Amino acid sequence: MSSMIVLGWRELAALPGLGIAAMRAKIDTGARSSALHVESHWSFVEAGAPWVGFRLRPRGSAVIEAAAPVYDERWVTDSGGHRTRRLFIRTALSLAGTEREIEINLADRRGMRFPILLGRTAVTGAFTVDPARSFLHGRLRRRAPSL
User: Fold this and answer.
1) Is residue 141 part of a domain?
2) Cα–Cα distance between 4 and 141 in angstroms, integer?
3) Residue-wise pLDDT tens digits, 30-81
4) In this structure, which of 2, 102, 135, 138 has its CB flanked by the most CB atoms within 10 Å?
């Protein structure tokens, strides 16, 4: 277990395959799946396979539009006990200097403080979490005020 990377309960995560350089992520070992906040999404077919296009706006950044093949669609129960049907995609996660492929669902996390929630399937086998610590692998820099 000594080769496991220690994460805090919140970290910066990137989803480079989607054009997301760095976003605040909550590491939640109580959640099985991971979720990405999207403002909107739409389905389409590419080469006979189902795809999803989506739009998000990282805090302080321009709108990002991305698309990915649909990996799965299944019911997810949120922390409030509400069940919704969500689309899942597979994409690269860059976290704490490592990169791995994860599955993540597209959700409306508008009322949440973190646009990315990383559940235990995304961190199992590579990371361990210290819930008393946060941002062990860097922080977002605040922009200097304009003069």
Assistant:
1) no
2) 27
3) 999 999 999 999 999 999 999 999 999 877 778 999 999 999 999 998 878 8
4) 102
> Which pLDDT belongs to residue 61?
75
**Domain total in the chain:** 1
Domain, as residue range, for 116: 5-127
- The three-state DSSP-derived secondary structure of the chain is CCCCEEEECEEEEEEHHHCEEEEEEEECCCCCCEEEECCEEEEEEECCEEEEEEEECCCCCCCEEEEEECCEEEEEECCCCCEEEEEEEEEEEEECCEEEEEEEEEECCCCCCCCEEECHHHHCCCEEEECCCCCCCCCCCCCCCCC
Place of tokens 């739409």: 42
Indicate whether 147 pLDDT > 70: no
* pTM of the predicted protein model: 0.89
Name residues whose C-beta falls within 8 Å of residue 116's C-beta, 6 or more positions apart in sequence: 13, 15, 23, 24, 25, 26, 34, 35, 36, 37, 104
User: Which tokens belong to 72?
Assistant: 């799965």
pLDDT > 70 in the chain, percent: 93
